[in-house]
Amino acid sequence: ILNVEQSPQSLHVQEGDSTNFTCSFPSSNFYALHWYRWETAKSPEALFVMTLNGDEKKKGRISATLNTKEGYSYLYIKGSQPEDSATYLCASHGSGNTGKLIFGQGTTLQVKP
Amino acid sequence: SQTIHQWPATLVQPVGSPLSLECTVEGTSNPNLYWYRQAAGRGLQLLFYSVGIGQISSEVPQNLSASRPQDRQFILSSKKLLLSDSGFYLCAWSVLSGNSLNTEAFFGQGTRLTVV
Question: Which is higher by pLDDT, A95 or A36?
């Protein structure tokens, strides 16, 4: 069984604060790590798909890093804005190329203006 | 362009009634297909996934079943719903890129199921 864990479960920050979340996953048989943003009343949308150890990806104020050897990924948001409020999900493909995509419980971010 | 359709958007069903949720994908072929459920206050739980027609992997023993009668059609069913089946159901797809799975998943709009 592939367990993907995220922390914290929820986070409240002020507008302008920078923040980060953690995703941990089994490092054995790692294949790919995904980050998604899920806004209320919408479908989850992909932010990043990462496969290489040490990889770092960036999209605007949001960036992510990946450590496949120790099994964790960080998502960073610089200068949080109210529109960043959402649930952030990470997901991992386990057991190689099987197609199985397992999600963590998510981190719900609330940015106060 | 690729699109995914999931219906219905909301459903209220009595305990013991059958269920059929349908998901179809357009604009791609041989996608991986997924059914997820978000129970109240929890994350996305993988229920079923399929890498091809007639190939279904079940992740959690439960009251539900899935079928893939066509390449781009994925159906979630139950013969008799339980109260615990209530939740938000999401269908998703992804494709192989070359021989890798490092492509993102795309989600439908979801179905809010309430079993009463």
Answer: A36
